[in-house]
Amino acid sequence: MLLNIVIRNRYVDSVMLMSIAAEAKARGGVEEVSAMMGTDANKELLASSGLLAEEGRAAGPMDLVIAVRAAGEDAASGAAAALRDFLSRRPEAQPGGAGPAPRSLSGALQSMPDANLLFVSLPGAYARREAEAALGRGLHVMIFSDNVPIEDEIALKRKARGLGLIVMGPDCGTAIIGGVALGFANAVNRGPVGIVGASGTGIQEVSCIVSNAGMGITHAIGLGGRDLSEEVGGISMLQGIEALDADPETRLIVLVSKPPAQSVAAAVLDRAKNCSKPVVINFLKGDPAEAAKRGIPFSATLEDAALMAIELAGGPKRPAPVDSPALHAVAEEERRRLPAGRRFIRGLFSGGTLADEALIVLRAYIGECRSNTPLAPELKLSDPRRSDGNCILDLGDDEFTRGRPHPMIDFALRCERIVREAEDPGTGVVLLDVVLGYGAHLDPAGELVPAIRKARDSARGGIAFVASITGTDADPQNRARQQAALERAGVRVMETNACAARLAGLIASKGTH
Amino acid sequence: MSTQGVSGLLKGMPNVVSMGLASFTASIASQGARALHVEWAPPAGGDPAALEALDSLLPRAEMIRQANDRALQMMQDAQPVLVDIRPAREVIPGMSERTILHAGPPIAWEAMCGPIRGAVAGALVYEGKAADVADAERLAGSGKIIFSPCHHHCAVGPMAGVISPSMPVFCVRNETAGNMAYATLNEGLGKVLRFGANGPEVIARLKWMAGVLAPSLAKALKIAGGINIKNLIAQALLMGDECHNRNVAGTGLFLRAITPHLLAADVEKETTAEIFRFIAGNDHFFLNLAMPACKAAADTVKGLRGSTIMCAMARNGVEIGIRVAGLGDRWFTAPAGEPRGLYFPGFTAEDGCRDLGDSTITETAAIGAMAMAAAPAIVKFVGGAPSDAARYTLEMYEIAWGSHRDYQLPALDFRGTPAGVDIRKVVETGITPVINTGVAHQRPGIGQIGAGLLRASMNCFREALLVFAEHYGA
Predict the structure, then answer these.
(1) A49: which residues sit within 8 A by CB, 6+ positions away?
(2) Partner residue opposite A122 with nearest CB, options B3, B40, B61
């Protein structure tokens, strides 16, 4: 069977045609394939190899002749069709990616047509427009930016849902997708635990505890702080659960969030209940009864959620919720050094969720603490710049970050405050979180240690420093190295944020616990 | 599009486009994922009216996409074939004995730039309507002459772009859609009518072209049965031309195509030799074939509802104007720019006329500066390196709707040239088309003094977008 197809007035360079024909022949199933411009010389060549049919003979020098010889008609037309495909195939971008950087999403997509995620860290006012365009082009979106109006968030998430896409954020600081940390996130092991979280540092803490226990994370899907509000309705949370439920690598799911709005809680809990795999819920400050009603394990802290996940994934059983004698011993040792008047805890946090977790943990040791982001409105500090009694401060809150970088990146404010707290004769324990990972400061210990030494000097040694490190040894900062540097400066470094809060609580509660 | 829902995102590492903090992009890339950073700037430079216009078109994106896909299809499906050479009065629609066509958007005689005035005067002398240049200028100002843009008559003209009734024109037919386009024959470089020169030698050359060159080539064409210009352009791009400011290969290819037919035609041997000498001595002969070929392609989308593709861009030395497919015949104009480039001995940028000519029809139809990567030799006009040529083209992809199927760039792995300038992308990114151009002396009668490069003015794109949004926006 000999087949000739003539494409009129289509000039293609001969070397290009030869390489395409070779490719079409390599597909197999045909005896010979050729593609040539229909010049007299070329037609002669085709004829001499028995490839010229009536149609080809009629072609002119500006016409492209495709010639195929094969056993059957299907094979011949298949090869001709393949050749036409190769002909229309064009590289969409310069190989090697040289050339000017793209200046817009559509420019970027020309270079990377298979992009599937837009990461937006622009000023909030511009986020919607770019996110909307990305959704229109079939990309999922992560919006790191804050200051995006809630109407925009609702519109984006609804549009995304309609398109089978997800919007993580706005104000989504952390995600881990396919092992890749996006925004502020840690280099954690791969493993069976999937996370959906409305809190960036919450996701970081849970994923690091899991990873440091030798287990790992499939994906951590971020949502942004407002996803579970009544207005947004938990759109991304529900999509995230759905996706992890369907993900074959994920064996159990951890949900990390502040308590959802009433109307949203039911939907989320019902969806969680219908999951084909175990779900662990940590709604910080939430009501365990709601989850219990649906038979879903509820954990009061990030640490508890992580340990529960580890256990469910086949790791070691969760320890009993009793402080170990070793912890008591450490607390005792620290307490002995404190002068009588120095008894207050001053927590200086860079992660809002970590501050929340500390507030919850400390309740059992020293009762309620004041805060700029308190558990109850009456506990709000009148002036967050001045500590009063037991205080836990979220230095990453808007009132501190306006006009300056986040305290995970810039330690100036925290260092200054560490020194100031030590000058207060009431301060007994300074409690710190140290968050490592991509996006965070490259040497937090290097920033903190001079301030800690200065503070200790001004308190004549009569002050305790307790910290946790949210991070892994694989992080750019290396957890072990950070821990060693802090310990050399006399800081008690605990495994988890909750554990650090417990130690601080034990020290401050003078053994009454 | 995501066919797998959110699960699609969880299959393997994400391929990330990132805009904002470059450190985040670097973090992602450092983990072995593909991450492309966008050099982001506030869209439309933060211009609120332009942003509002862009936003109002977002709900129309699908309609526009369909229209633009169709526009690109029609433009690249066009098969412009040189079919004849005839006096303008016989073929150009709307051409009366009193009509003089000129380059660019509409302009009155009083406002015309030096080179067009010079060319108009030369044309009136050539037509025998005026005894000399002074007489011609009086006639031009008398109101008895009808001035009209080439673009309003299916025609295009390089530089001054002047076409008078008895000038022979190339007749190019788009065999796909059947529409025609016209352009004069190229006179050569230096003191020529299109650069505003109008001395006796200019008139004499025009007479020879009308009396000898055109009829002889027409005879050859008849024998040839037409010459497909698009195919010549596609080949010329592979040979180092961009078919606007460099036409060496195209001219050679045309000569090769016409030679056997000219030899076979009933033309004196001496005349044939004269014609060969003329064409071979004029590296830009092909420009006047590439231009109507581009015009024939671009005209197919004029008036295409909903399309944001630019379908004409032209300058008259005072203003630059563009037309947009979805907005029909309307021009959107802004002051013409000033090219940067190289000047002939004795001239400087000060002597230059502002940007001039219909030759930007090439950029409109995916060649010219769009195809700069094909013609590294061109960048010497602006003192650049060959890599700059590729860079210009790569930047143009940012504002192009797609890439041309048949116009390929060897230096970019045979990627198609950036095709179909989308006015939305221009306004959004702040990138306007690059233009390759010749430079005429600003005074009438002198001619070409250099060549160079410039950018189209943003204002005409902005204005066009605002009107487009008014028309089509939500």
Answers:
(1) A32, A34
(2) B40
DSSP line for B356-368: EESTTHHHHTT-G
Instruction: Return the exposure string of A255-293: e unless at least 16 CB atoms fall within 10 Å of the residue's CB, then b.
Output: bbbbebbeebbeebbebbeeeeebbbbbbbebeeebbee
Q: Coil, strand, or helix at residue A324? A: coil
Determine the Cα–Cα distance for residues A183 and A142; give it in Å rounded to an integer.
9
pLDDT digits (tens, 9 = 90+) for A277-312: 999 999 887 777 777 788 888 888 999 999 999 999
CA angle A215, A218, A224 (to 5 degrees): 115
B13 vs A178: CB contact, 8 Å cut-off? Answer: yes
Residue from A451, A105, A114, A497 nearest A302 by CA: A497
Burial group, residue A124, by CB count within 10 angstroms (0-12, 13-18, 19+): middle
Contacts of B91 (CB under 8 A, 6+ apart): B84, B169, B171, B180, B182
The two three-digit tokens of residue A252, written as one number: 């159990």
Q: In angstroms, what separates the C-alpha of B189 from chain A's closest C-alpha?
A: 30
Going residue by residue through chain B, which has 474 residues, state the pLDDT in tens, using 9 for 90 and above. 445 789 999 999 999 999 998 889 999 999 999 999 999 988 888 899 999 999 899 889 999 999 999 999 999 999 999 999 999 999 999 999 999 999 999 999 999 999 999 999 999 999 999 999 999 999 999 999 999 999 999 999 999 999 999 999 999 999 999 999 999 999 998 789 999 999 999 999 999 999 999 999 999 999 999 999 999 999 999 999 999 989 999 999 999 999 999 999 999 999 999 999 999 999 999 999 999 999 999 999 999 999 999 999 999 999 999 999 999 999 999 999 998 888 888 888 889 999 999 999 999 999 999 999 999 887 766 667 788 888 899 999 999 999 999 999 999 989 999 999 999 999 999 999 999 888 889 988 787 888 888 999 999 999 999 999 999 998
Chain centre distance of CA B419: 12
Instruction: Find the Cα–Cα–Cα–Cα dihedral A63, A64, A67, A72, rounded to 10°.
Output: -100
C-alpha span between B423 and B400 (Å, rounded): 9
Of B18, B228, B403, the CB nearest to A90: B403
Q: How far is B219 from chain A (nearest CA, A)?
A: 21
Non-local CB neighbours of B256 within 8 Å, separated by 6+ positions = none
Tally of CA atoms within 13 A in the half-sphere of B372 that contains its CB: 30
- Residue A303 and residue A200 in contact, taking contact as beta carbons nearer than 8 Å: no
Phi, psi of A335 (to 5 degrees): -65, -35
Q: What is the pLDDT of residues A183-192, one digit of tens each?
A: 999 999 999 9
Concatenate the DSSP letters of all residues of A261-315 into one string.
PHHHHHHHHHHHHT-SS-EEEEETT--HHHHHHTT--B-SSHHHHHHHHHHHTTS
pTM of the prediction?
Answer: 0.80
Q: Please answer whether residues A207 and A178 qualify as being in contact, where contact means their C-beta atoms are separated by less than 8 angstroms.
A: no
What is the three-class DSSP state of A194?
A: strand
A106 part of contact set with chain B, CB < 8 Å: yes
Inter-residue contact B183 to B288 (CB < 8 Å): yes
| C-beta separation of A199 from A450 below 8 A | no
Q: Alpha carbon of A350 to those of A120, A397, A431, A471, B393: distances in Å?
A: 22, 8, 11, 14, 47
DSSP for A20-49, please give it. HHHHHHHTSS-SEEEEEE--HHHHHHHHHT
Q: Which residues of A touch B18 (CB under 8 A)?
A: 118-121
Radius of gyration of chain A (CA): 31
| One-letter amino acid of B463 | E
- Rounded to the nearest 10°, the torsion over CA B319, B322, B323, B325 is 180
Inter-chain CB proximity A117 and B416 less than 8 Å: no
Alpha helices in B37-176 (DSSP H): 48-57, 61-77, 88-91, 114-126, 133-141
